From TrEMBL:
Family: Belongs to the binding-protein-dependent transport system permease family.
Membrane topology value: Multi-pass membrane protein
Residues passing through the membrane, by range: 27-51, 91-112, 124-146, 172-194, 232-254, 281-305
Intracellular or extracellular location(s): Cell membrane
Organism: Inquilinus ginsengisoli
Protein name, entry field: Multiple sugar transport system permease protein
Length: 314
């Protein structure tokens, strides 16, 4: 009767309100959860990056003066031997640090993965350096490596190596920085690999042991293939860390100041010098943009070689 009356009056009956499906509600809830982080990244990361890229086309005095110079900073960069040398040192640093962190992190994870009485203690000891301030780490290692009176120098002299000058020799300083960086970071990557090892079902290794496979064969054909996503994450994060110098700048600033003879002047440290010591903010911004491009290229190469964590060990 009500619907008939509505039709006779010329008014349409109200349609029932459509409710969102469970899938759409989950979709909306997910985006609402990541919205604060997305806004934070946009405000504190995206905006500064865009500002840095734009500053590369200006000459900035540091006192509010801006003068558009086009590609002059990039042409200057291409002819700057110190910047080109800093890129070479950075690539050498990446080539040593990334494999060192991968091998040391995986090795320590395999060592503490076994359920022994002191496994928890060893995990704590290996991770403990990562909990110390890098400035403190740099000062301690500077004392240990100081020529003639440092503990490491005395040990090298006792071993017949002639008391190597780890921080004073241009041929050794970068190796010292790499070694300290590996010592500082290996506990962090140990935990990442440890989580990956714990996700591997134990039944696989038990079946391989029953079939007569030894530890080496089990590691090669079971552990490594199942650690592909973890390995990719470790390689990606360590590469970004090495190129950007996020964990190395403090060490270089405290221990070597880029020396001796610019042998430890990574690109990030040279950019810092140009910006905050010489006031060349536009030139530093242009170099930083090139460093970002190099980082993106290395990341893309890593994705290409590993197929996004799907290694081929055959």
């Amino acid at each position: 009767m009500t619907s008939g009356t509505a039709i006779q009056d010329g008014t349409a009956a109200p349609r029932p309100r459509r409710r969102l499906s469970a899938r759409h509600r989950e979709w909306i809830a997910g985006y609402l959860f990541i919205l604060p982080d997305a806004l934070g990244l946009l405000l504190f990361v995206g905006a500064p990056m865009l500002l840095s890229l734009s500053l590369g086309f200006f000459e900035v005095s540091g006192f509010g003066g801006y003068r558009f110079v086009g590609l002059a900073n990039y042409r200057r960069m291409a002819a700057d031997p110190l910047f080109l040398e800093s890129l070479r040192i950075t690539l050498a640093y990446v080539a040593m640090l990334v494999p060192g962190l991968y091998v040391s992190g995986l090795g320590l994870a395999l060592l503490v993965h076994r359920r022994t009485r002191f496994a928890g203690l060893f995990r704590t000891l290996f991770f403990m350096p990562h909990m110390v301030s890098l400035v403190v780490v740099g000062l301690i290692w500077q004392v240990l490596l100081i020529d003639k009176i440092g503990v490491v120098s005395r040990l090298s002299a006792a071993l017949g190596l002639g008391g190597l000058s780890w921080l004073g020799d241009p041929d050794l300083a970068l190796f010292a920085i790499v070694g300290i960086s590996v010592w500082f970071l290996m506990g962090y990557y140990m935990l990442i690999f440890l989580s990956g090892l714990q996700d591997i079902p134990r039944e696989y290794h038990d079946a391989a042991r029953i079939d007569g496979a030894g530890p080496v064969a089990a590691f090669r054909y079971i552990t490594l293939p199942l650690l592909r996503p973890t390995s990719f994450f470790v390689l990606l994060v360590s590469t970004v860390t090495a190129v950007a110098g996020m964990q190395t700048f403090d060490l270089i600033y405290v221990m070597t100041k880029g020396g001796p003879a610019n042998s430890t002047a990574l690109a990030i440290y040279y950019i810092y010098e140009q910006a905050f010591q010489f006031g060349e903010y536009g030139y530093a911004a242009a170099m930083a943009s090139v460093l970002v491009v190099i980082l993106l290229a290395l990341t893309g190469l890593l994705f290409l070689l590993t197929r996004g964590g799907r290694f081929n060990y055959d």
